[in-house]
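[audit] Reproducing an earlier prediction to check determinism. Same input, same settings, fresh worker. If the tokens differ from the archived copy the diff job will pick it up downstream; this log only records the rerun itself.
[audit] input (123 residues):
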Amino acid sequence: LVQLVESGGGSVQAGGSLRLSCIASGYTYRLMAWFRQAPGKEREGVAAIYTGGGSTYYADSVKGRFTISQDNAKNTLYLQMNSLKPEDTAMYYCAASDRYVGSWFAVWRYNAWGQGTQVTVSS
């Protein structure tokens, strides 16, 4: 059984930091990513990483503030979030893909999802 389990969400003030973790069990995926969804908005890609080569991709809104990384030995994906803003408030999801087509930020490309972890940033 393939599972993605996120942790690390919480409430912080603007300017603060959080680190999200996602443990992937049962399978090694080719591409892993973080998405987020705020109330009333569509799910959007935040950052992604190819697990083999380590190439990373970021949404413009988080470039320079967020860092995606992985620990292959622990099958764990991370998202370090610094300089958080109120507009970063959302449910954050870990996602994994085996597919070879589609942009890294395309929701449909991902065939495994975690349950989500809430991030709330207050001003």
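[audit] rerun output stored. Observation attached for the diff report: The first strand starts at residue 3 and ends at 7.
[audit] end
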